[in-house]
Amino acid sequence: MSENRPRLLDPHFVSKLARLDLTARLVVEGFLTGLHRSPYHGFSVEFAEHRQYMPGDPLRHLDWKVLAKSDRKYIKQYEEETNLRAMILVDTSASMGYGSHGITKLDYSRQLAAALAYLMLRQNDAVGMFAFAAGQGEQIPPRSTMGHVRPLLLLLERLTPGGTTNFAASLHSLAERMTRRGLVVILSDLLDEPDRIEQAIHHFRHRKHEVLVFHVLDPQEVSFNFEREAVYVDMESGERVTTRPQELRPDYRARVGEWRDRIRQYCIEKNAGYVPLTTDQPYDRALLEYLSKRARLL
Amino acid sequence: MPVFSFLNPAFLWALPAAAIPIVIHLLSRRRLPEVSFPTTQFLRDLEPQEIRRLRLREILLLILRTLAILLLVLAFARPSLTPHNTVAHSAAAVAILIDDSESMAALEEQARPRIEIAKERAAAILEAARPGDEISIATSTRPDANGAGHTTDRVRLKRALERVEATSLPAKMAAAILEARRALQRSRLQARELYVISDLQRANFAPEVRAEIAAAAGAGVRIYLVPLVQGRLPNHAFQDVDPQLRPGPEGRGLELRARLANHADAPSDRVAIRVRRGDALIGGGDITLRSDEVRWVSMPLDWRGAPDAAGSAGPVILESDQDALPADDRWYAALGAPRSLRVLRIAEARDGTPPPRFAALALDPGGDGTGGFTAETGTPASLLSLSRSRTDVVLLEDVASLSADAEAKLRTFLRDGGGLVVALGPHSDPDYYSAHLFQGLIDLALEGTEQAAEGAPFELKARIPGHDVLEGITVGVGSTLTQSRLTALIRGRVTSPRTEIVVQTTGGLPVVATAPGVGVFLSSFSDDWGDLPYSGAFVPLVRGLVSHAARASKTSSTGSLKVGEPPVARLLAAPGAAVLVRGPEGYASQAAIESEGTAYRGVADTPALRPGFYVFESGGKTLATVAVNVDPIESDLAPIQTDSLLMAPRGMGPAAAATAATAAPGPAPAGRIAVLSSANALATHLQDTRRGRELWVTFLLAAAIALALELAVGSARTLRT
């Protein structure tokens, strides 16, 4: 990331802003400002305005009538219209409540989900949301109006960590309910049995959904940079393991690496997107990944 | 079983400190912080392979830390191990035998006499004694005079030790060890130790001494040899002086002969000799000796004066440059009146031919006695009128045998102090000499004539260079004596160590054998059996034999008196009153008078303890002056190899064998004799046996090793991270 990256993309900064709607908007605007000329300015059937032709613009959008009349080249711009239906899945299990440096995985996921929703709605995509944990979930069906952002953000603000991650139960039921083909964005630490995660992804893919997995982890989960010997308590199962981090660190890192590689490999096989994230990383990477995925869908 | 104990048991109170690492470990475990973590799934997976290894390492570290503290505490408590074969736990009877012989006056490093070092060692033993130990101090020169009998009185023992000084006497090691053993066996204490503190002179440790050591060990006494020196100090020494003054070269002036030895592994420097008579310096000379060489040296004397009434020329003192042992660099000599040796040569004419005169010419070529010898020739019948007053030495030259009367006369002559030289030859009857004449004179058995092989005549080699028979011939051990050869000789066999073979053939057949007052040449003095009479060695050989016979005879024995023996003087007339003997350092003794042939013999009642002149007086009149000197055996400062003392010799001495037979049965001597060759070794031994072997160094090292291992295990863990 460049040093002049907007602060609005910095999770620490954003987490200090109280209002999710504001922060989501700020994130997206900041993200879009950082982009060059946007290739995502919509091209739809509803005319919006003219602008001067610039070399490289597709000739099919050239307004031939104006050219014939005035011998000037103008491009017709349209309000974008899309049929993309996206469902953002946010893991609210107890393990998502972990944060080693002031921001929990759930906070990070919440903010990222809000930004994604805002970005999607801004692009006239229909966005729904599903918060899941321990086989249960709260769902908001997708809509594409900007006014739909409010219930989404309200849901996100309500989320609290609790229960266990149960991919199989939660996601399978959702997959069954999603009748129209769309984009499924998963924000989770994926702390479940890898087989179950794979089954859930497979289920979505089987029903022709596009899947984009944001694998959100805390930096400590990856690096295990604890110093002292301590009793480590599993936030979901309550299991206690006494260990000495400096002794186990290399093996731990290797194990976590293997685990992430396995999921990544599966996602590649299933043509699903996989984005490993840690909560100290800026959001722009996630947003870029989303846009890249969307571009492939349209 | 070895006994383990602590010399500083108070430190054992600190043993609970070894629990500190365990306590810290337990406390740290109890206070472990709890950390919420999203999942312990990966930690749990690692548990079987990693955590168990960590636990093991943790336990290992805990053990090492605990062990280090434990060993440290034990080291401070001074652990001590007492071997089962020591006397640490029971009082012991301890005999300290200090060698106070003349050699103990030899100066070691920083000019310290050996006796001082010996006293230091003895003091260390006294110092280490525990209450109840019974200790005695004895000396090697006077075993019967026990310095301090077995006692527990330390003050008395220390005083006795202070009184010990190096004497001028030779060591009587066998007797001293025997006496010490008997004293120990009288003790009621069962643990018995004998410390022999000595320079362990090789000459003083004859097989009988080793047998006594073995006997004492066999009787249950633990013997500790405490040698004071490891190497041989070079030392030259007077060994003898010929009391008979001789005419000087070509009959001019007088000549004194002294025998010196160089007891060293290297040649000596030039040794200057001075001869003093009273305060006047009357002669001197110098000599350079090879390694271990013994040689006679002749010195011209500026002599004035007449023989005294006893036929003595007077006392002189010979001094040489002082070296390691000053006592043997001075020699006292009571010289006889200067005159020629009178030789009666007995030879037989055969077939009307007079006997060859080679020997007579060798002794007195001018016939006037100016060569130091007068030679008169006679037949065996001449012996019937033999008189000691007219003859000093009889030379039998190729005499077949003697009549009984002649032999009886000859024996009387020899008892009166005369000397005998026998030169055999083709006509000598070996059986007669072996069975008759040699009996009581020389232990030599003759076995018949031995002819040299054709073309391989006998070659003569010196077996004892420096022997007085060879004084006129410079020759080394095994060197050829002369270019001439012998074609035959009488085969002889020496039957006791008292008889010496001075010259032998290359094949080892004796040619010249000697005993005190007697010399035998086993070939011929004529040219019947070779060309010896024509060689340059013939004259000094004949003269050497005659001189030896004369010197070793009783008339000239005054020069060979040694300290430790009672002074003896030959008196020409019976004293009218009691005879008193006076000597150096206030020596005074009565003397017993014995008849000896035609003369008398005075023997002092008390042994001489110091070298010097001893004067026999009667009624205020001096009867005789004799010289007493240190025993030359003490001059060779070479120590014996201590290894040879650790085992019993093959043949035990008679005394040792007898005492060993009556001794209490005990374990085999092996292991009962030990050598403590340095002050440190003695100190360690005393520490081990009196207080046990201290192990604190071992424990400290073990603690250090435990700490080092702890560091290694700990750092291995750090490296892994």
TrEMBL record, chain A:
Residues 83-254 form the VWFA domain. InterPro entries: DUF58, VWF_A, vWFA_dom_sf. Transmembrane segments: none annotated. Signal peptide: none annotated. This is DUF58 domain-containing protein.
